[in-house]
Every structure is written in C-alpha cells, then in structure tokens.
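stage 2 :: seqdesign
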C-alpha cells in the first residue's frame, strides 16, 4: 500500500512540474474494457455459456444422485448398527466405500471434461475478440487499453466514459461467422498475447463429502 501511495505521489509531483507543452505532447488516450464480459455477453458467448450450463447441470444432477445413494446407505448402516449381522454390515460398508471411490473419480473426470469444454467453446470467441480489440484500439488511437476483468491490473477506479466494452461486444457480434462457417483470422492483426479464456459463470462440481466409515 505504501509503494502505491509513493508511486501516486511521484506521479503527481512530476505532473505538477512538467511544462504545459510537454503535457500536451504526451497526453495519453486510455480506454478500459471488461474483456471477459465482452466475450461471455456476445451472442456467440451466450450460446456457448448455455451449452456449458446444460452439460454442467447434467453432470451435477448425476453426481448429486450418486451422493444421495451413498448417504442413504450410510444412514442404513448407522440405523442397523445393532440389528444387522457383522457380515451384512461389512458388505454394506464395502459397497459404500466402492461407491465413494467411484464418485470421487467421476467428479474429477467431470471437472476435467468441463474445463476442456469451456476452452473449446470460448477460446475461439476470445481469440477473435482479441483481434477485434486490437483493431478497435488502432482505429481509435488508444495509447493503452486496460482489461478490468483481469484482477492483476489492480484497477481501483475507471471512468465509465472510457469503457469500450459495449462497443467491443457489438463488433464481436458483427464479426461472428454465419451458422456452419468458421471465421478465418484476419492477417496483420497479431494479438499482444495468447487470448485468455473467460471463466464460466458456473463453477465445476465440487467433490462431495465422504461419509465416515463405521467402526
């Protein structure tokens, strides 16, 4: 925090003593963009999010159903602690352990599959959005464009007048390929770095709690 205050103070001092001519010559043109929102709220991004959500919900329902089955068997084992034979309790415990192992494996597989699906759905849109953003920045002669969706930017305030997210969304929609077609990347528009894939609005299923074994 101290470093930030010192940095701001230094900037203030340098600006105060800089000549008017120098300030006019170096006046920057800054824009801010919520890149993640632009991708997810574009027409293609909404379709991708809906598809991801449908897949997520199906897997979540299956995992919850399996967890309920384990919970029911655990309750049965607890209630039958005095009435079930030792052999029956051992068999029931083995079945619970097996189903718990299967559930943990299925949950891990689901998370990997959802991660892959997210990348497949959103990465092409993010890559096109990066190229479009570069074109927009060049056309408007922005000195710098700050992505406020990236937590590493440490942006504490941005003027809404400088926000170009809505404009970027319109351009993404306008450049979207027609159904059944794949948009080819435009030459001469290199991205400053690899396009990031926005995180989905719904997180992958979390591992269910494992019921304790019976003594």
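stage 2 :: out
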């Amino acid at each position: 925090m101290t470093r930030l205050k010192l940095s701001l103070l230094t900037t203030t001092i340098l600006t105060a003593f800089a000549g008017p001519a120098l300030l006019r010559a170096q006046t920057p043109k800054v824009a801010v963009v919520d890149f993640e929102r632009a991708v997810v709220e574009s027409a293609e991004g909404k379709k991708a999010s809906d598809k991801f959500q449908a897949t997520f919900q199906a897997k979540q329902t299956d995992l919850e159903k399996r967890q309920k089955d384990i919970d029911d068997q655990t309750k049965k084992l607890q209630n039958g602690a005095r009435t079930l034979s030792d052999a029956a309790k051992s068999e029931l415990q083995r079945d619970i352990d097996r189903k718990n192992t299967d559930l943990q494996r299925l949950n891990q597989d689901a998370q990997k599959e959802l991660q892959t699906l997210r990348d497949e759905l959103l990465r092409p849109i993010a890559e096109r959005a990066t190229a479009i953003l570069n074109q927009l920045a060049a056309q408007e002669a922005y000195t710098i464009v700050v992505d406020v969706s990236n937590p590493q930017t440490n942006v504490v305030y941005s003027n809404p007048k400088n926000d170009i997210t809505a404009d970027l969304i319109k351009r993404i929609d306008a450049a979207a390929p027609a159904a059944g077609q794949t948009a080819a990347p435009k030459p001469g528009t290199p991205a400053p770095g690899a396009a990031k894939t926005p995180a989905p609005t719904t997180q992958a299923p979390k591992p269910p709690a494992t019921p304790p074994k019976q003594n």
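stage 3 :: structure notes
- The chain is about 60% helix and 5% strand.
- The two ends are 53 Å apart (CA to CA).
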